[in-house]
Amino acid sequence: MKRILIALSFFLILGSGCARKVVVESNLNADQAIFQNQPPDVSAEVLSHLCIVDVRSYGFDGKLHQGQIVIHKELAPDIRDIFDVILKEHFPVESVLPVSHPAIVAKGPYGLSPDTNNTSGYVWRPIVGAQSLSMHALGMAVDINPRLNPYRKGEVVLPPGATYEVSIPGTLTPNSRVVMAFKERGWEWGGDWTGGKVDYMHFQKIPPGWEEFRRTNR
Questions:
Q1: Is 135 part of a structural domain of the chain?
Q2: DSSP string of 106-140, one letter each residue
Q3: At a CB cut-off of 8 Å and minimum separation 6, what does 35 contact?
Q4: Is residue 110 in some structural domain?
Q5: For 156-198, how does the pLDDT look when each residue is reduced to its tens digit (9 = 90+)?
Q6: Which of 19-23, 79-83, 125-129, 159-163 is the least confident region?
Q7: Residue 217 belongs to some domain of the structure
Q8: CA-to-CA distance for 146 and 199, rounded, in angstroms?
Q9: Residue 196 and residue 207: Cα distance in Å, rounded?
């Protein structure tokens, strides 16, 4: 009887795995995701604090996808928890690829390209329109579905041609469970910004104890 139950359990698990076939978008190792395809002025210290997190979400094709986010190691638990919410809510995400992924690098040097709706964390770059380092450059920020959740400042819209329409799936709103999941964990949402600019795609957080590190890396 015991053997029958074990065999039955095995086939149930196997069947469940077949029913939930995963589309693997990214399966890079840490060296590929963090250290490859980086600009020459990148900070080795910053890279040493990064890690890669495997995440799952539903794509706009309705299928289950596996992607990866490069993020500050202290924020990895938040990212896992938030993507659990994204998965349970069936909030669609077009792609989740590290900027060092060949598919992103092919669109622009070091993954810097406006021609993408890719969700990502770390990227070595300055703040838009400034010289100081972005929170993304420290692995302390995440952008989600940029073409549906654009940055706006005056006449500037990034990515170019992006629109913000709250009725479209994958769009972030103040009432979105995804936005609330970030805020519950102490993240700041760019959709709340005032002073003439908003950044609906953007979430950022300085891990507790890393405030001085942020101040000295601008």
A1: yes
A2: TTSGGG--SS--EEB-----BPTTSSSBPGGGGT-
A3: 47
A4: yes
A5: 999 999 999 999 999 999 999 999 999 999 999 999 999 999 9
A6: 125-129
A7: no
A8: 9
A9: 27
* The token pair that represents 126 in the structure block: 């300055």
| DSSP symbols for 75-112 | GHHHHHHHHHHHHHTT---SEE--TTSHHHHTTSGGG-
Contact partners, residue 16, CB within 8 Å, separation at least 6: none
| 4, part of any domain | no
Domain hosting residue 189, numbered range: 21-212
Contact criterion met (CB below 8 Å) for 70 and 139 = yes
Across the beta sheet with 50-58, the strand order is 22-24, 64-72, 50-58
Alpha-carbon distance of 107 to 88, in angstroms, equals 31
Cβ contact 138:217 at 8 Å: yes
Average of per-residue pLDDT values in the chain: 89
* Residue 69 contacts residue 55 (beta carbons within 8 Å): yes
Token pair of 217, please?
A: 């890396």
State the Cα–Cα distance between residues 39 and 114, nearest whole angstrom: 17
β partners of residue 158: 151
SS3 67: strand
Q: How many CB atoms sit inside 10 A of residue 127's CB?
A: 13
Phi and psi of 67, rounded to 5°?
-125, -170
End-to-end CA distance of the chain: 65
Split into its structural domains, the chain has a count of: 1
